[in-house]
Amino acid sequence: MGEDELHARLKAYEGRPAAVGGTGRDPVNAPMIRHWCEAMGDRNPSYTGPDAIAPPTMLQAWIMGGLGGHPGRSRAYEELLALLDEAGCASVVATDCEQEYLRPLRPGDEVSFDTVIESVSGRKTTRLGTGHFVTTRTDVRVGGELVGTHRFRVLKYAPARRPPKERRPRPVVNRDNAGFWEGVGRHRLLVQRCAACAALRFPWLPGCPTCGSPEWDTVEASGEGTVFSYVVMHHPPFPAFDPPYAVALVELAEGVRVVADVVGVPYDEVRVGMPVRLGFRRYDEELVLPVFEGVAG
């Protein structure tokens, strides 16, 4: 199919319904308003008390279909998505939304809605890949009265080919930490110990932060530890990494804390307090890094 023919077929879906006669799964209610405000940190008094209204930006929350999707999605919308899939635009990402509010929603309001395919763009090239923006407009009503409009835009695209994977950044090795990296190369995690007061320290430093002594030796960590804190990285700026992945601050049995990747368990199963065990992973011919593997409870 040529580009002109595809564009004409896509444009033919503009103005056709994407969902008709939809209804909110729940009436507007105080518990959902409270959860929303707590998540957003919004303490506006308008959203509490006997005369409470719902935060305007919750408009979409009352019409979302949940994990089961929208059972009222139209055949026309399904055909449009299938056409884009056939054209190689099988990936999708939400890009933005716009909302207009005509009156506040209040607890007890029962919403209904209709959605129309408002526009389908020509072929666009983005960093993610090449595809088409699809914009839908949802009119939200209460008892037949229009209370708000929600425009939602997605990009259906063919992912761009990724360049060859780059190498991970190299650690900065200097005279103060060279011994640590030499240990890692031998699959040993070495922790500094002050020769004067025996305090353990990590990362490596030229002097003891407890007593100030410049004298030190090392002890080898047992490798046992627990997750003290963690983050899940979704969008790092480095092409050498494969998000999402979990990075943890691990408290070793010796009492010091180390930052490293958590491997061997799904990133979304990492938890504070999870027991982990030291391992070492080779990333290329030069780079070996300590990692921590989740231990089954």
What is the strand and helix layout of this fold?
Elements: H1 3-11, E1 17-23, H2 30-40, H3 75-86, E2 91-101, E3 111-120, E4 124-125, E5 129-142, E6 145-159, H4 178-185, E7 190-194, E8 200-201, E9 216-220, E10 224-233, E11 245-252, E12 257-263, E13 275-282, E14 288-294
Parallel strand pairs: 12-14
Antiparallel strand pairs: 1-3, 2-6, 3-5, 4-5, 5-6, 7-8, 7-9, 10-11, 10-13, 11-12, 13-14
Overview of the structural elements:
The protein is mainly beta. It folds into two domains: 3-159, Thiol Ester Dehydrase, Chain A, CATH 3.10.129.10; 178-294, OB fold (Dihydrolipoamide Acetyltransferase, E2P), CATH 2.40.50. It contains four helices and 14 strands. Strands 1, 2, 3, 4, 5 and 6 form a six-stranded antiparallel beta sheet that branches. Strand 4 (124-125) and strand 5 form a beta hairpin. The chain is elongated and about 80 Å long.
What keywords describe this structure?
297 residues; mainly beta; Thiol Ester Dehydrase, Chain A; OB fold (Dihydrolipoamide Acetyltransferase, E2P); 2 domains; 6-stranded antiparallel sheet; 5-stranded mixed barrel; 14 strands
